[in-house]
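Q: Got a minute? One more chain.
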Amino acid sequence: MNRVNNGIKLLARSGIVTWILLIIIWKIASLFSSPDFLPSPEATLEGFMEIANNGVLIEDIAISLQRIVLGWGRGVIIAVPVGLLIGQFKTVRWLVEPFINFFRFVPAIGFLTLFLMWFGVGEASKLVLITSATIFPTVINTIAGVAAVDPVKYQAAESLGASWMQTFFTVTVPATVPYIFTGIRLGLSSAIISIVSAEMLAADAGIGYLIYTSRLYYRTDWIFTGIVVLGLIGFLADKLLRVLGNRLFRHYGVVNQ
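A: Always. Here it is, folded:
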């Protein structure tokens, strides 16, 4: 009996039960609607196989992933040191925070038209959009991490004769790692959201482009395929980040179940 209960708990924790229930609800709902409005899971799977076999889906996934990785990576490289410096110097934080708090409430897609005018309709505008979407959550979390460092740690470093530079790299940075890691994860989510919007409005390939152009053929199953693929990309990417965080930064306090 205990083995059965443990097995049920394991399935529940893994999320498998949730997905099974969702598919069942989806199937039942599809029975009461037309395929053009809500395709069944089987119809969506058939649509998935159709565009996967002809190579369209694989190409779109590869293009979107390339854009996400490049834009998100650049955003992280810019945001982490900027956030650390802003958080470390109170005067800089007082000057910059109003700017950050203003623009972080403007959705990244709101800048797309401007970026298209500045950088053209090629890859540059999309990468800049993804980079900007990544920067704000990463910077904000990094600043919060610096502000949350226990002052006692600074006092201990000073009492040992540590210089400002030594204190920064041995106290501030290590203590801020969990916040930085959270910001990086949030930045990845923003990157995926922004690339879909960009591909819907200014692209000729990608998952967002697939979802948007599927309406022209009234292929709701392709739209659902794109949505499911996006969810899987985000889920797997975040899972990979969490695994890497557990292995590489556990001693800094990064622990994600």
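A: The chain has a mean pLDDT of 84.
Q: Perfect, thanks.
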